[in-house]
Amino acid sequence: MPATGRAAIFGSFVLDATDATASVLRDRWVVTEGGRITAVTAHRPEGADIVLDAPGRFVLPGLLNLHNHCFTEAIARTHTEDGAARRNGRSIVYTVLLPLSRRGLDIMTREERLAIARLGILQLLKGGCATVMEGFRNGLAEMFDAALEMGLRFYGAPYVFSAADPRAREDGSVDYGAADDGAADLAAWDRLHAAWEGRDDGRIRLAMGPHATDTCGPDLLRAAATRARALGVPITMHMAQSAGEVATIRARHGRTPVEYLDWLGVLGPDLLAAHGIACTPGDLRLFARRGAAMVNCPRVFARSGTTASFAYFAAHGVRTLVGTDGYNMDLLGELHAAAIISKIVTADATAASAPQLIAAVTSEAAAALGRADLGIIRPGAAADLTVIDLSHPHLQPLSDPIRALVWLANRGNIDAVMVAGRLLVAGGRYLHGDEAAITAAGAAAVQRIWDLPEARSAFAN
């Protein structure tokens, strides 16, 4: 997918590239060429191949969503809300998501897997994301194909497991089984790294993806971290996402999940851990000292009545980001949820402020990846932009565009998305494929999984 050439995008508001307080420039043109931003100017540029000059637009750095699952959450969608698919109040991870995702990969054709990947990436792009870190079973390599084809900046994190097929017992405890899949999964990860790392001028990357503290043993976690650091790739995993996980790690190793990762040498600035809702204040202080990042995904927990508070992590000095977890790939809606849940939990109207949350999906997220060229609008940075239409009636009258973005906007306000100088979304529509056809094919592929007897049993409530 070639770059668009020279593009000029007008913003009634442009997030300031140089001000750490996230101030806003008024009436500026952002000019891109050759995959890079070349100018931010008050003067209309000449000779652009593409011009976007509608009024009332807010031009942001391309938003970064650093924890998502296109496949597993597609399986869960509309089956798991209102307490459905839960047993004894326990998480659906081991009762639904992992078993059905494994079974689904066994029965689907390559084209069906690709259809689900395309549907997920379409939702991500239309939700405003320019960069996504995506965790998935290593049998779903089609995620890379879809990201390459559709233009997303992609950090694929194929899972590595010690226990790849855990199952919940009737009492809610988890049987992890006796199999150790670590060596095979690391070998599969290496093959994917050799095939995909750095494709399309570095737009396609890999992250090391140990699934979670309770599904990865000490030897695998040490080996995975060592391999990641030798290759200079980030590490991402689920951590302290339930009380059950904490109890399991305590029983096995006499530590909390954070202490477990620190004991193994995994905890560090290259780790992006998701969820952390069962972390203690002491855990978070240790986490912050090691410089790791936490990705807060509030809405996936809210569906089960659990408050995952951005402010809880940030208050302990943790670099805190926001991701969608795949449940509802509306990153602006996720920011709103992070704000409102944090304020309710803390009873503090100043917690999780709008500038802080925008940084969590722009500059702070880029810093967690070690990418000085992402999450910022300035000459020389990557030409990744997310453009928001603030002219809608529900966003007017407008005084502060940053607050409006977090408190009033949603995916319906996404006007344009550019990645590496390629215009992927304009006027809210994906430009390089038939949205209806992509949607229908992806939904049909998921239906094949829903039709399985084990799916019908899991969703019978």
Can you put this structure into words, describing what you see?
The protein is of the alpha/beta class. The chain folds into two domains: 7-62 and 381-430, Urease, subunit C, domain 1; 63-369, Metal-dependent hydrolases (TIM Barrel, Alpha-Beta Barrel). It is built from 18 helices and 20 strands. It has helices at residues 70-76, 93-107, 110-126, 142-150, 182-196, 199-202, 218-231, 243-253, 257-263, 281-289, 298-302, 310-314, 331-346, 354-360, 363-369, 401-407, 435-450, 453-458; strands at residues 7-15, 24-33, 36-41, 50-52, 57-61, 63-68, 129-136, 153-160, 167-168, 174-175, 204-206, 209-210, 235-239, 271-275, 293-296, 319-322, 385-389, 414-419, 422-426, 429-430. The strands form four sheets. Strands 1, 2, 3, 4, 5, 17, 18, 19 and 20 form a nine-stranded mixed β-sheet that branches. Strands 6, 7, 8, 11 and 12 form a five-stranded parallel β-sheet that branches. A four-stranded parallel β-sheet has the order 13-14-15-16. Helix 10 links the parallel strand 14 and strand 15. Helix 1 (70-76) crosses helix 2. The mean pLDDT is 94.
